[in-house]
Give the backbone structure.
Amino acid sequence: MTRKLALGALLSFLLIAGWFAIQEAAPTNTEGLTDWVSFEEAFELAQQDNKLLLLDIYEVGCKFCREMEETVYPSPAVKAIIEQSYVPVRIDGNSDNPLVWKGETIPSSQFAQEMGVSAYPYTVIMTPEGQILDRKRGFLSALEFSQLLRQYRLSQSS
């Protein structure tokens, strides 16, 4: 009887601890850091403002996704380049949320597969016409990320 009680208490503790870990790992509110735009709206804005699209494909619970969100995107250098040259979009790569890609409505998870996502975070830079310029898998420091963004910003303007 005591063994069952101890096992039940341990199981309850693990479930509660797991729930808190998931909640802590979920992306935090990024309001004020980067003005994320919906996928559908992004193409129109990019064409209108002559900017590239910056897609941040993430996964809820991803440690490195959260680290980029908390340390890379708020970086003054990164934020300035994004505001000047990119339309930023966040996509949950495991979600069934619908988005329109090449005239077809598909789940975000299918879009992530089509982009070749094999790990998170996954960054895609594309033209307003949907041409993929670059894809990067994994965490990038603020310096690495700003260099990547500058590279395509410069090639866009030449």
Observations:
- The longest strand covers residues 52-58.
